[in-house]
Amino acid sequence: MTVLNIIIAVLALVLVGLIVTAVLRITLTPVPGRPDISAAPVSSSIPPVQTSQLPVTDANVRSDRTDALSADQKSLLDALEQALSGTREDRVQAMEAWSNAVMDHSAFDSWTDIWMLTYQDGQLWRDFTGSGVLINGSSVYFGTIDHQTPDGEGMAIVVDGKASGSAVMYFLQEGTWDQGVLTGEAQLIRGSSQTDPAAGGCVIQCTLDGSADEIMTQAQLTVSQTQNGVTHQFTLQAENGAYSSDGTDLISCALHSDCGVSLLVDGSVTDLTYQNPYPWGKQPRQMGLPFSSYAYGYGGR
User: Fold this and answer.
1) Res. 45: pLDDT tops 50
2) Residues ≥6 apart with Cβ < 8 Å to 201
């Protein structure tokens, strides 16, 4: 190769290098009015996968007990979840079926005990925030939940005994909850799942003080009982946790002026502290509830 050929080859290489440099400069130089993407990080446009209809947050943690549920038990839980959007009667009936199975599940192929777990969206959750059904054995709370604690509008139903047939005795609390404490205006009902409380039971319209003791600052108790096909009702008052007595030990029927049936007021009424007897997730405050005892204490006159 002659010296001239070598010079021509070197010049050709230099020319190619200049052309490549110019092209790269044009490609990487930002165009006025457009963003500089030369240093932009690479990102994926694939949306995250959602494994549930519920929002996936740190507050909603699924319980592995979901996988242990039998088809029959899951059917009962589904009925409780459906009752969340139903009436009070729907919830009581779903609760009746659930609590009967809790008390006797010998007919089930398998049974999974549930304590302080939320059932929502067909799943059990061990940490949940939102609207759902919070289950604690035979007690169920329907409503707003904050980290497995009633918080907001809701209804709790505690089953504490059997009545005749499939009926169960329950104590219902409906109102506003503040981190597990029932507060403000509330309605409490003591009754049987197959009896209208207005015909047999006790309905309490009250205001609670907002403390952990859940004291009734004002309360009107309507006690009902049906005898020989006739329903009788009696009204009592309580204030600041104590029975408001008018000095009489007999309360006349509020529905009939001449039925001759009265409610006998004894120590089970006058000596009681009037507060929510079933705080959520805790032991009952008092076992000798007037809602189940003095409702049957009739005296004639």
Assistant:
1) no
2) 189, 190, 191, 192, 195, 223, 224, 291, 295
Give the C-alpha separation, 243 to 230, whole Å: 27
The contacts of residue 123 (CB under 8 Å, 6+ apart) are 52, 54, 62, 63, 66
The whole-angstrom separation of Cα 248 and Cα 238 is 15
* pTM assigned to the model: 0.77
**What's the Cα-to-Cα distance from 122 to each of 93, 243, 300, rounded to whole Å?**
19, 45, 53
Enter the tokens of residue 64: 């592995």
At 133, list the tokens.
Answer: 């059904």
Residue 250: its pLDDT value, please?
85
Cα-to-chain-centroid distance, residue 150: 6
CB 255 within 8 A of CB 232: yes
Residues 281-299: b if buried by 16+ CB within 10 A, e if exposed: beeeeeeebbbbebbebbe
Mapped onto helix, strand or coil, the DSSP state of residue 172 is strand
